[in-house]
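Example (one chain per record):
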Amino acid sequence: MKSTNRNETAQNAADKSKRGRNGTSRKGPSRNATTLGGSRKRTTTINLVLIVAILVALNLVSSRAFLRIDLTSGGAYSLSALSRETLARAEDPLRVRVFYTDGVPPPYSGVRQYLLDLLREYQTLGGRAFSYDVVDLSSSEGRAAAREYGLEQVEIQEVRSDEFQSRAVFLGAVVLYGSSVETVDGITGTDGLEYRLTSAMERAISRVDALAGMTEPVEMRAVLSADLERYRIQGFEELPDLLEEIFHRMNDDSYGRLTYELSRPRHDEGRLEVQFVQGDRLQTVPLHVYSGLFGGYALDDPGDIEESLRWGLRSFVAANPRVGYSRGSGERDLQDYRQGAGALALLLEDRYELVPLDLSEEEIPPDLDTLIVNGPRREYSRQALYRLDQFVMRGGRLLVFLDRYHQEMPSQQEMLLGAEPRWEQIETGLEEVLAHYGLDLTPGFVLDEESFVSSARGGRQKIYQAPVLRGGSLNRDSVITRALEDLIVLNAQEIGVPRAEDALPGRRVTRLLQSSPRSWTVDDPSLVGPWLQGVPPGETPDRRVLAALLEGEIPSFFSAPPDPPDPPAPLEEGTLAGGDSFPERFRSESLPEAAVLLVGSSELASAQLLDPRNRTPNGTFLLNALDYLKDQPGRAELRSKGLTVPRLQVVSPLLPGMIRWFNVLVVPALVVVLGLVVRGRRRARSRAVQALFSREEVSS
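Predicted structure:
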């Protein structure tokens, strides 16, 4: 009996020990296991609740805080240094009102969000000095405010009810600073948007600072010819009172810096204008008279008259930097908007004041540090070349558009008789001066296989004399051309520059624009025509320099001042007979800040290739070049911001075909092989799991 009890006790102890090692009993989970499982569930629930609470808190904080990280290489989504400096200049509150219609379709909806994100960046840096608000354009008050600021509606297309519909929307913003108002209208893309906003802020701040810092008031002089009374112009009798009311409002907005005078000349027929006068400066704003529908004459509406006068005053006090413009030797005319430089004048008018100078008759004023020479057709006088040379010697900066050939078009009568355009070679004398400096404009007429393609007469024809510059043709190390693509040059000549820097001691040459490796030159441009089919046999294609920048210590072309054109006579120091004068001090070498930027074609600055509203790379290149010469590279960098288009550089003509067949054949094959490998591994894992459970069932 005792032996039996002893055996049962040993068996019970063995069963307890076995249950302790396995952690479970055949009859069900133990109390400890149940407690542990419940604790794990509570912990998981608490963690889930905490995660949700943290996410909600982060969303609440992020709705009030603004943070962006710009990971782009060029900082395309961060404010530039120039924008930061502009915000730092603001001494009064700077405000931006956004008039951008809500609910616009893509891509305008993305532009609207980008604009708001950009303004939040300004607000983060500007602090309390900067603010912005979005105007509700669904209300009549919001639309009226947009029109009052001079914003114009834009017609856009959108799909509604499975059909295209057109509607007018506002896509603009207004910058307010003190009494100054600047509009940024037609915001249809993100390219250059920061530049437009910062430029508007700069103009507003500069205008207010100019008004506040004036020591001499601006006289607002109304000139109304008394002889106009006989024409019975509607509104003419009330015009003096109207102008005086406008003056009081403008004077209040101009910190009391204006004075007013009314002039009623009786023997100066037809004068109807308002003049802004300060010292020797004068700007005239004409008041327009229109013919009525049923006869008679009428003035503009009072609101339009006030807006014209306010714009005139803004332009008068803007004080844009002055840039000289050479004339007198057949240069492109600033008033010619078809064949001349009218498009260039419109492009520069918001940033620079162009000062025409006849170098054969006039000295270059000492306050001018930059001069444009644009497409001269006639030879310069010796005095003019000397003035240009000494301008560079004293540290001046030249922007030269020079041609070696000019195409003369026949008259209509000559064309009827079968006459064709003829090319004439140009010799201005400036070529020798530039070659002495280190920039040799050769007679080589550049043609390029990478050229503009014309779609005319139902076909496509390459215009070989119009190279399209992209990729390696544009200097990526220069702020002038870093972000440009698809710039077009027409009828350009090759610029010869030394290959080694040692050839120009004290000077450095930067090749800004070059043709493609598939370009060549001809000595006679009349040999160019639609019969050309690429590089002719026997020609060696290579890159040709089309624009170059020379900087450093440049040697003078002259060894001494030229002799005066008239016989010597007793003169004051520094003057010549006949009224001509030269700088008192002759310089044989330039100051280090001197620079000459030469472009081998004046067509680059013509209306044919230039958009006055700067919607082409050509306009950006010209503005960047002038900003660089004016020692404002930050402005050029800001203007080019976001314009770079990343492109694949094709190093071999076989490479595109290889990539295409790789994508068509190799990539699908790799996907199939990878799928088979994954399937095999899954099947092996399934077999291993089945074998494991089979062994456990057998052991149990």
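Caption: The chain has a mean pLDDT of 84.
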